[in-house]
Structure formats: structure tokens, C-alpha cells
Design brief:
Strand content: 15-25%
Distance between the termini: 46 Å
Largest sheet: 9 strands, mixed
Order of helices and strands: EHEHEHEEHEHEHEHHEHHHHH
Number of helices: 13
Number of strands: 9
Structural class: alpha/beta
Helix content: 40-55%
Radius of gyration: 19 Å
Shape: globular
């Protein structure tokens, strides 16, 4: 493996009401060709969660060196909590993961490490859909995670600073710890989208962000229209709060392009009954994003009804 032999990696998994998939993720991380030096489970505690203790107990029984750090639900923040986790780590690189992203094979960590290099702040992995993933979400995964690796700097040049240039996902991303500090880390308070904010800060600081197609996790969701609405509302809030970034990296017609290409994909496969679902979900995303961007003009009750993270607004 050359240079990766001597490099140390810590892994951070964000945990909230996990199921047994979390055990599988830890097990697969421990079975990597490059095993993380430390695995940190950052658990956001919920008063309504009954099974988390059982899942964690099973993990610690098998892997007693795994470290668990608790965060109160009302204190969780997409940026601040991850920043706290980064400062727990001591290795050269930190692998950030979510609790529902399973390494596809034993070379996830190795392949992310091989893609690292000088002036690269973060490398993120390809996401392939789970077996039960619906067709529209399956196509969206292929749209966002193509079959070719890419560089944010090159994408920015090709698209005239299009939004794709700062696409990044903390579902599975490996950070250079020194570069993380040099760039300025995650925002201290953000409702959503901390990974893209960091990617934009990286480019501004002269660091590149890479997408590595050989590093793969299994991850997808079958969201309802309401769930899409709420996620995109929070996304719109982050766009409003960090307008100086999203004015620079314009979205232009990227969303429209995705809808059109997905529709063509469905028609080609004669999945005509899925087209109304595509239109409905796309509409919910659009409305959610628009409302999120104008959240400062909305009554507090409306904001609380639209968001996925009610505690964020209470801090």
C-alpha cells in the first residue's frame, strides 16, 4: 500500500437513535485493510430512544476500545458537534461517517487515504444505493456520485464556480487534520450543510476537495415528500445564513437538470407511474428550499413546523 502503511486514521461516526446497522459499520471498519487507530461514536442522546443502549452495549462487548461521547440533543449542531469530534482525534486523518453508511468492502479507508495529497483538505466517498432504494433515489445517487473521480478545483473552473464545485458529503469523508485547522474547520453553528461550507472554505484557502470513486459506501433513503420538504427547508436556511458562499457558488439550473434527466431515465425504462412521484418530490424540495431561504421573514411557529431540527432554533 506504500504511503498508507505508516499513516494513522481516526474514525468518527455520528449516532442518533441507531439500529443494528451501527454494529455492522463498526465491524466493517475494524475489518478494513487500514484499520482506524480509534473509533469515536458521537451519540446525540434522545429522551425517546430505548434501543440505543442495547446497540452500544453489543458494540462495546465486541470492540471494547471503541469510544463513546455523549452530546445532549439540545446541544447538537451539524458543525459544532463535528468540530468537537475532530478535536478528540489525534491521527493524521479523520474519517467522518454517518450511522447508516456501510463500507462496501475492506478497502474504503485505504482508497480514501491513497487519494490524499498535498493541499487536499478532504476526500469524500461514492455512495451507492441500498437494495431497497426506490428508482428515483437510485438515479439521484448516480447523478451525484458518477463513475469518475473528480477535483473541486477542476469542477469550479469548468462550471464557472457552479454549486457542484463544493459538493461534498460527511456521510463518508476523510479529512486531513492539519488542513482542517488551516482552513478554519466547520462553522460553529449551522443547521445543515456543514460539509459544503467547509468545501467552499477549502477552495478559498487554496485547498482542493476530491471525490474518490474507488471508495464506496452503501447509503440511500426513501424519503417522503414531507421529509424532503423539511430537509430542503434546513438546506435553504444554511444557504441564507452563508449567503456569501452560495452567491459565489451558484446553483443555476442544476436542480432542473437533475429533474429532466431523471424524467428521461424513467421514460426510457417505461416507469411512467414514477413520474408523478418525481414531480411531487421535486416540488416539495423546491418549496422547502425557497421557504428556508426566507426563514427570517416567517413566524416562529411556521419555522418550527418546517424544520427537522427544532432544538437548533431554541439555542
Amino acid at each position: 500500500m506504500g504511503k498508507v502503511d505508516a499513516v494513522k486514521v481516526d474514525a468518527v461516526v455520528m449516532v442518533y437513535k441507531p439500529d443494528k446497522t451501527l454494529y455492522d459499520i463498526v465491524s466493517r471498519l475494524m475489518g478494513q485493510t487500514v484499520v482506524p487507530q480509534n473509533i469515536y461514536l458521537i451519540r446525540t442522546k434522545s429522551r425517546e430512544d430505548g434501543q440505543t443502549e442495547d446497540v452500544l452495549r453489543e458494540i462495546l462487548r465486541s470492540y471494547p476500545d471503541v469510544k463513546v461521547t455523549d452530546v445532549a440533543e439540545e446541544e447538537f449542531d451539524h458543525g459544532g458537534t463535528r468540530d468537537m469530534a475532530m478535536h478528540l482525534c489525534t491521527s493524521d486523518y479523520v474519517l467522518m461517517m454517518s450511522q447508516d453508511a456501510e463500507p462496501k468492502n475492506r478497502k474504503l479507508v485505504e482508497n480514501l487515504l491513497k487519494a490524499q495529497g498535498e493541499k487536499i483538505s478532504v476526500v469524500y466517498a461514492k455512495q451507492e444505493p441500498d437494495k431497497d432504494c426506490r428508482i428515483v433515489e437510485r438515479y439521484t445517487r448516480s447523478f451525484n456520485y458518477p463513475e469518475e473521480s473528480s477535483s473541486a478545483m477542476e469542477t469550479a473552473a469548468k462550471t464557472n464556480n457552479g454549486i457542484k464545485a463544493i459538493f461534498c458529503s460527511d456521510v463518508c469523508a476523510m479529512y486531513d487534520r492539519k488542513a482542517y485547522e488551516a482552513v478554519g474547520g466547520f462553522p460553529g453553528k449551522i443547521i445543515f450543510n456543514e460539509d459544503e461550507i467547509f468545501a467552499a472554505k477549502s477552495l478559498r484557502a487554496g485547498y482542493d476537495v476530491l471525490y474518490e470513486v474507488s471508495a464506496v459506501v452503501l447509503h440511500s433513503h426513501n424519503y417522503s415528500g414531507v421529509q424532503y420538504f423539511k430537509r430542503y427547508f434546513d438546506l435553504g436556511v444554511s444557504h441564507a445564513d452563508f449567503r456569501y458562499i452560495f452567491d459565489e457558488y451558484h446553483a443555476s439550473d442544476e436542480g432542473i437538470r437533475l429533474v429532466k434527466q431523471t424524467a428521461r431515465y424513467l421514460i426510457k425504462r417505461k416507469r411512467y407511474f414514477d413520474i408523478p412521484v418525481l414531480i411531487y418530490h421535486s416540488g416539495m424540495k423546491f418549496v422547502g428550499m425557497k421557504l428556508g431561504k426566507m426563514y427570517k421573514m416567517l413566524p416562529k411557529k411556521v419555522v418550527m413546523a418546517c424544520t427537522t431540527n427544532k432544538f437548533y432554533w431554541k439555542r
